[in-house]
Amino acid sequence: MSDNFFIKNKTAIIVTALAVTSAVGAFYYYNQQQQQQQGQQGKQGKQQKQGGSQSTASSKGAKKSEDFVEPSSSSSSSSKNKKKKRKNKASSISPEPELVADEQSINYPVDSKGLPKLTQETIDKLSESEKENWAKQLKEDGNKEFKNKEYSRAIAFYSAALQVKKDPIYYSNRSACYAALDDHENVIKDTTEAIKLKNDYTKCILRRATSYEQLEKYEDAMFDLTALTIYGGFSNKSVEQVLERVLRKHSIRIVDAKEKKLVLPSAATIGSFFGAFADETGLENIKESSQVGEKFLYDALVKIQGNTRDGYEEADTLINQAVAALSQDDTKKDSLAIALEYSAAFHFLKNDSATATELINKAIALKPRPRAYVFRALINADKSSYEEALRDFKLAEDLDATSPDIFYHLGQLYYLTGDLPNAEVNFQKAKKLHPDNVYAYIQLACIAYKNGKAEEAYEKFTEAKLKFPISPEIPNYYGEILADNGNIEGALKQFEISARLQEKLDRFSVGALPLINQATVISRESLEKIPEAEELLIKACELDPKSELARISLAQIKLQKEEVDEAIELFEESCDLARSIEEKIQAISFAEASKMQKRIKSDPVLTAKINELMRQSDSLQLQLDLTYVTPQLIVSSGPTTTYIESWYRYPLSDLLQYLNYKHPEHWHLYNFRGEDSGYLNSDVDFHVSHFPFPDHYPPTLDIIWDATNDIDDFVSASEENVAVLHCKAGKGRSGTICCAYLMLLGFRNGELVNVDDIIELYTSKRMRAFGGLGVSILSQQRYLIYWGEFLENESTRVKYSNWKKKKSMSSSSSSSLIDKIVFRKCYRDNFDVYVSNYVVVQEQSRRNTIVEQVFASNTFYEFQFVQVGEEDIEYRFQNPIEVKEDVMIEMGRFCYLWFNIYFELAKNTACKEKRCITFKWKDVDGFKGTRQKGKKLFESIELYLID
């Protein structure tokens, strides 16, 4: 089946949301991104160098010296203590002894081993001042024992100190000893006593959470870790990572403890599985008039072909009866082999791959058929054993090269592993050999869409509609493509058609899927649509009681309505219905996170702390992740209108509240997200312009020109106008356009434009201290350099414009042809090369406007290796590659670079004459724009062009 766009709603719970509502979630997200405000004053720089007072938990973590540097009332070490820790190594192991009133050691009673020996009578005779001094001295002596790793002796001193005075520090230090001894029960007892005395004693909360985790009391550990995120103002990422880990451990344990029920999945799932196979033919012995075992098998195949929910259950029973009966008759081995094939398929659908493998191997041993090898290939592929799967497909083809089952499912394997060219070839074969396979048509349309050919995809869906006019599958998956591309109105229409077609059929097809898709889309439009979405999802659950997606989607709606108990029940039902272990874990994570949210809200201390955090937000801006780069230019992360995302991204409503309060009638949004803006035009009263391009990639010069001029027109219209730029994280894409606009301002003011200075300015405004460059992706920096050259040199602007006009008027729409690629000093010779252009399509978007959707074509071209000298490798393509002006070369799936042909050729005369573009390894971007490029592949790359 095609990729389900709405499966994205089944993301794992963001752990910080365990405790908070969306408003506090916004505060959390803002706090993560805005810490550079304090960093500008130098405070954060010191913290980066010196480290904080907390660390992530481990069972041995109690041995660290921080456990004995007790926090002040603000729960952080004072500057004085930090200076002391820097003086020498000894002071980093244990704190300096505290001075008592007379600056001399106190002579308290000890036993023959030198351990304190206090009686209540002795303690009662002490004055309050003496008790204070005795307790401090006992603690200091305990610290010395701890430093020497004499944990049992240290416990004796801390216990004596507690006899004299109940102090949270003494409980904390004693719990550290128990932690060092792996006595987690006593760690929990002592930290609990400390927390009773000091609710926000974060060190003890963390230590107790660690012990809870060691004892596998995951719910209690999650509670403490969530409390830590609250006390830390949602700014401790290390604690969040531990919380996420514990939540997953807890969820896995719950899933593992559940009774393993081998049941068939949703009828829609079964129907799509068997529907992709051609009807059985040539089964001479399996017919209606057959007897006993073969009659069972015949009836089972009829039930499967009927494609009904009850029919599949009956077919499962009949298959088992067929296997049992045919196993008793040695003359029926051929029929038994077929029965075993289908028995393996049903066990595979029940997620019982071990039994499925055993049964299919028996079938093949009796009489191999192409379908048997295909079944086994699917079982192997499901276990990620792709090489074994490919071997099975080859064995099937050797038996019958005209079997359509082979090529459709082989195409599926290539599709799911990202090899779209091979997937397309095999789907075409399947379509030719089995013209009635609707899924082959759908997959070919999806491949066209994935390749950035939206219009071609729409044409292929139209072709499929004409071929299968009453098929619910086609409008459903066509709707998913439209929704993914932003055409919400068109998507909803297709989902409605699909649901109506399914309702009229006497068989199961897509089942509840169009209802789920329709509900998901309308729930994203506005809160007013939630009741309508809920009604659709209830209907979906009734239509397909085994659809886990229907239940998990309905549960999310219930959360939005604050019907948490019902949501938890639905999440747990979804877990039971889910087929894969990972889906089960995700569903349970939702349920357990919701339970924890309830527990946190019922805690008066934590609730008060949350309220305190919100009161500290002295302006609406504190709740948002936005930065004023200039008084009229804001860069922000992307807001959201979905409930789940609002736990870790701020809601659009909060942004609008701020803008309407701070800049009423004088703001305009600029969206650069190529994947989806996250809201409708109507959600922002149409105060938005869209200039989308893919994440981690640079914008084309056309996009830069159009976006910066649009921003300039708006900002120049009034001194009160404010442009709000956003992508997803509010960093690379927004930063690139922001820097381009600042360069445009400088150019118009007659200033010299220096790209490095502009990026540094943007970084200082937007990024936290030591957080790296605001525009860090090399390809994005490269396009800013092009933009600077375009602005500063009039002859460049003229020549570039003339070059574009010349190319647009030529018979070929391509700018050039890449003839070959040479890698100098190549260290590997077996990596693939992909060549991409930006594909720009004008179409109706989900924002109900005509916008340019930009995609990377990401195409693999056949080539041959040619050794050039001892160290160089030349990639020669079978045919020259047509490319437009903006080109991406991706190498080995680990690294890539974007460049503009005109500006690279214009760098120097030699380059232009040779029609050769050269880059060094240091110019290449790593995975997703990072510096993680993998092992060095070459020293430099040369691309040779021909017109």
UniProtKB/TrEMBL annotation:
<keyword id="KW-0496">Mitochondrion</keyword>
<dbReference type="InterPro" id="IPR019734">
    <property type="entry name" value="TPR_rpt"/>
</dbReference>
<dbReference type="GO" id="GO:0045039">
    <property type="term" value="P:protein insertion into mitochondrial inner membrane"/>
</dbReference>
<dbReference type="Pfam" id="PF22784">
    <property type="entry name" value="PTP-SAK"/>
</dbReference>
<dbReference type="InterPro" id="IPR057023">
    <property type="entry name" value="PTP-SAK"/>
</dbReference>
<dbReference type="GO" id="GO:0008320">
    <property type="term" value="F:protein transmembrane transporter activity"/>
</dbReference>
<dbReference type="Pfam" id="PF13414">
    <property type="entry name" value="TPR_11"/>
</dbReference>
<dbReference type="GO" id="GO:0140096">
    <property type="term" value="F:catalytic activity, acting on a protein"/>
</dbReference>
<keyword id="KW-1000">Mitochondrion outer membrane</keyword>
<feature type="transmembrane region" description="Helical">
    <location>
        <begin position="12"/>
        <end position="30"/>
    </location>
</feature>
<dbReference type="InterPro" id="IPR029021">
    <property type="entry name" value="Prot-tyrosine_phosphatase-like"/>
</dbReference>
<feature type="compositionally biased region" description="Basic residues">
    <location>
        <begin position="80"/>
        <end position="89"/>
    </location>
</feature>
<feature type="compositionally biased region" description="Low complexity">
    <location>
        <begin position="35"/>
        <end position="60"/>
    </location>
</feature>
<dbReference type="InterPro" id="IPR011990">
    <property type="entry name" value="TPR-like_helical_dom_sf"/>
</dbReference>
<keyword id="KW-0677">Repeat</keyword>
<dbReference type="InterPro" id="IPR000387">
    <property type="entry name" value="Tyr_Pase_dom"/>
</dbReference>
<keyword id="KW-0472">Membrane</keyword>
<keyword id="KW-0378">Hydrolase</keyword>
<keyword id="KW-0802">TPR repeat</keyword>
<keyword id="KW-1133">Transmembrane helix</keyword>
<feature type="region of interest" description="Disordered">
    <location>
        <begin position="35"/>
        <end position="113"/>
    </location>
</feature>
<dbReference type="GO" id="GO:0030943">
    <property type="term" value="F:mitochondrion targeting sequence binding"/>
</dbReference>
<dbReference type="InterPro" id="IPR029023">
    <property type="entry name" value="Tensin_phosphatase"/>
</dbReference>
<dbReference type="GO" id="GO:0030150">
    <property type="term" value="P:protein import into mitochondrial matrix"/>
</dbReference>
<dbReference type="InterPro" id="IPR003595">
    <property type="entry name" value="Tyr_Pase_cat"/>
</dbReference>
<protein>
    <submittedName>
        <fullName>TOM70</fullName>
    </submittedName>
</protein>
<dbReference type="GO" id="GO:0006626">
    <property type="term" value="P:protein targeting to mitochondrion"/>
</dbReference>
<dbReference type="InterPro" id="IPR016130">
    <property type="entry name" value="Tyr_Pase_AS"/>
</dbReference>
<feature type="domain" description="Tyrosine specific protein phosphatases">
    <location>
        <begin position="709"/>
        <end position="766"/>
    </location>
</feature>
<dbReference type="GO" id="GO:0016791">
    <property type="term" value="F:phosphatase activity"/>
</dbReference>
<keyword id="KW-0597">Phosphoprotein</keyword>
<feature type="domain" description="Phosphatase tensin-type">
    <location>
        <begin position="615"/>
        <end position="794"/>
    </location>
</feature>
<comment type="similarity">
    <text>Belongs to the Tom70 family.</text>
</comment>
<dbReference type="GO" id="GO:0005741">
    <property type="term" value="C:mitochondrial outer membrane"/>
</dbReference>
<keyword id="KW-0812">Transmembrane</keyword>
<feature type="repeat" description="TPR">
    <location>
        <begin position="404"/>
        <end position="437"/>
    </location>
</feature>
